[in-house]
């Protein structure tokens, strides 16, 4: 059961990372803000599993 939770968290973090890169490519001047939000949400996703 824990394996499924780990797989779900890994998929979520992968999608999150992809969206971060898309946003950074579109708006390079917002990278500091996006990076902060990325790490906050990544920590929440990892903590919930």
Automatic annotation (TrEMBL):
One of its GO terms (cellular component) is plasma membrane. Residues 1-48 form the V-ATPase proteolipid subunit C-like domain. One of its GO terms (biological process) is proton motive force-driven ATP synthesis. It is found in: Cell membrane. The keyword Cell membrane applies. The gene is atpE. InterPro entries: ATP_synth_csu_bac/chlpt (IPR005953), ATP_synth_F0_csu_DDCD_BS (IPR020537), ATP_synth_F0_csu_sf (IPR038662), ATPase_proteolipid_c-like_dom (IPR002379), F/V-ATP_Csub_sf (IPR035921). This is ATP synthase F(0) sector subunit c. GO terms for molecular function: lipid binding; proton transmembrane transporter activity. Its main location: membrane. The keyword Methyltransferase does not apply. Pfam families: ATP-synt_C (PF00137). Keywords: ATP synthesis, Cell membrane, CF(0), Hydrogen ion transport, Ion transport, Lipid-binding, Membrane, Transmembrane, Transmembrane helix, Transport. It comes from Klebsiella pneumoniae. It is a multi-pass membrane protein. Belongs to the ATPase C chain family.
């Amino acid at each position: 059961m824990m394996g499924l939770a780990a797989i779900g968290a890994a998929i979520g973090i992968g999608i999150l990372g992809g969206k971060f890169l898309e946003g950074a490519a579109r708006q390079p001047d917002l990278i500091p803000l996006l990076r902060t939000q990325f790490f906050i949400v990544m920590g929440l996703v990892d903590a919930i599993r």
